[in-house]
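Practice problem: predict the structure.
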Amino acid sequence: MGKIKVWTRQHKNVAEVLQETGRYITREEYIRKENQEHSNIILLAYKWLASNGPNVKNRPEDVSYPVWVAFESDSLMLPGENDVIIELEVDEADITPVNVTKWGMILNYAYIPLNEEDAKRHRELMDMYGVNDPQAVMSQFYPELKREIKDSWMRLYDDSVVVGNDLKYGTIWELRREWVTDIKRQTEK
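Answer:
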């Protein structure tokens, strides 16, 4: 594995932090600010993401949450008025690929099935209890269902489990000034 180019869309302040300190890490208050009224729900998924996965052993002590990167510059959402697109060159081994469809399921507290048969089995189980996945995860009354759902989230990293399309983003633990190869402002093309 070698170095690869990736891109991240960030608030323009991130570029300033990188310039001033040489490093940027995602903090909980940034996730809360970006997701406002849904932040508590989203933080559960982000805490899971930060505690699981192939690169968790490489997480620096002062880092709580990963930074999202795209493998293709055109797969980023258009930057807003206060956003920048930061192009980076990083070691491929430092990136954890994340299937976007599976990540969306985790954000929705959903079960990631092994296959169609497993999905059917899980739906029948949930129907038997009269709850849906988010209710089971957020409730204290269904610990076995909650455990089954959260255990299924490890399939996020299993490429043999196919759900939705194969679009992938990646996560890295930090941004470093020396990795930056370009920064584009919103007004630039």
